[in-house]
Design goal:
Keywords: DNA-binding, Transcription, Transcription regulation. The chain is mainly alpha-helical. 31% of the residues are buried.
């Protein structure tokens, strides 16, 4: 799925010219979902504009008119992915009573989400960054991953302050450990690991969590 033309990979808008007839109509939500699946499966760099127009079943002029260039489309795809498929982690942190409970739920749900049938395995935000040479895209994905780790660290810090976790807990290292597990589980899922295998991995990861004080739940 690698395009040989630089302008196509970068998603450079086609030169406007004369067109005949009315532009083809299409369902924008359906086209966006198809683009999401393409980027999820192949990553940003390896998904060309011609790949996108084929899976979205639209012409390049329609793609540019509806979504902008390739990078703009990808930005919308990432937003859509976060809302529909990737929100389970931050939701777990927000809804569970402790950081450990949030991390446990996050890891268990990752095992389910990353191996769900009928769609690409792993995490789009993690996988799409692989071999990405477009600096702005790479930086945006890195920022998103680091923001997730920062949210985990903040939750751990809150438990330390509340006395739920020991005062000497290294919140930054523990948060990065959880982030590394999530990223590793994503790659393992893409390599064929099953839900049960990832759940077993989550159990081992949770065993390294600092001992929770009795009154912390």
């Amino acid at each position: 799925m690698v395009s040989s033309e630089k302008s196509e990979q970068e998603g450079a808008p086609v030169r406007k010219g004369r067109t005949r007839g009315r532009p083809r109509s299409f369902d924008r939500a359906t086209a966006l979902e198809r683009a999401l699946m393409a980027f999820w499966e192949h990553g940003y760099e390896a998904t060309s504009v011609s790949d996108l127009t084929r899976v979205m079943d639209i012409g390049a002029p329609s793609l540019y008119a509806a979504f902008g260039d390739k990078r703009s489309l990808f930005e919308e795809v990432v937003q859509e992915y976060g809302a529909r498929y990737g929100s389970f982690g931050m939701r777990a942190l927000a809804e569970e009573p402790t950081a450990r409970a949030g991390a446990e739920r996050m890891l268990r749900e990752a095992a389910v989400e990353y191996t769900a049938p009928g769609r690409p395995h792993g995490c789009l935000v993690i996988h799409a960054a692989a071999n990405c040479s477009t600096a702005e895209v790479e930086e945006d994905l890195r920022r998103r991953r680091n923001a997730n780790i920062a949210a985990i660290e903040s939750r751990i810090d809150a438990d330390v302050d509340a006395g739920v976790l020991p005062p000497d807990t290294d919140a930054a290292a523990l948060a990065r450990y959880v982030g590394a597990m999530i990223q590793g589980m994503s790659q393992q899922a893409r390599d064929g690991a099953s839900r049960a295998e990832l759940e077993a991995l989550a159990e081992i990861a949770l065993a390294a969590w600092p001992r929770v004080r009795a009154h912390g739940g």
